[in-house]
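Entry 14. Structure prediction run on the chain below.
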Amino acid sequence: MNQEVVSFIESLNQPWQVEVSKQLRQMVHESIPGVEERIQYKKPHFLKNGHYAAVISPSKDAIAFMIMNATGLEVPKNFEGPAERKWLKIREGDSPDYGLLTQLLVQASNSL
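Output returned:
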C-alpha cells in the first residue's frame, strides 16, 4: 500500500467519495495479486507487471473507475470509453456492483 494513495483518497472533499474510493482500492488489491499502486497524473493508478490495470479518477460530482486492457470485455451499457479502456462513473447515492467490477477487472488484468 502506497502512502501517497492513502493520503490522496483521504483528502477527497466529500465523505462519500472517500468511502467509494477506499472500497474500489480494496477491491483492486483483492482482485489483482501483487498489484502496484502510485499517484500518476494526479490520481491513483494500479499496475500489474508494469502495465496499467485500473485508475480511480475523482471529479467534482463523481468517482470514475477505469478498467484498462478492456478490449473484448462485455460491459453493461452504463460504462463509457473506447474498447481498450472502460469506466463507470459512480455518483453520490449510487450502489456500484463491486462483484461485477471485480469480475471485469480480473478478466481485463489476466493477460497483463
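The first strand starts at residue 36 and ends at 40.
Filed with the rest of this week's runs.
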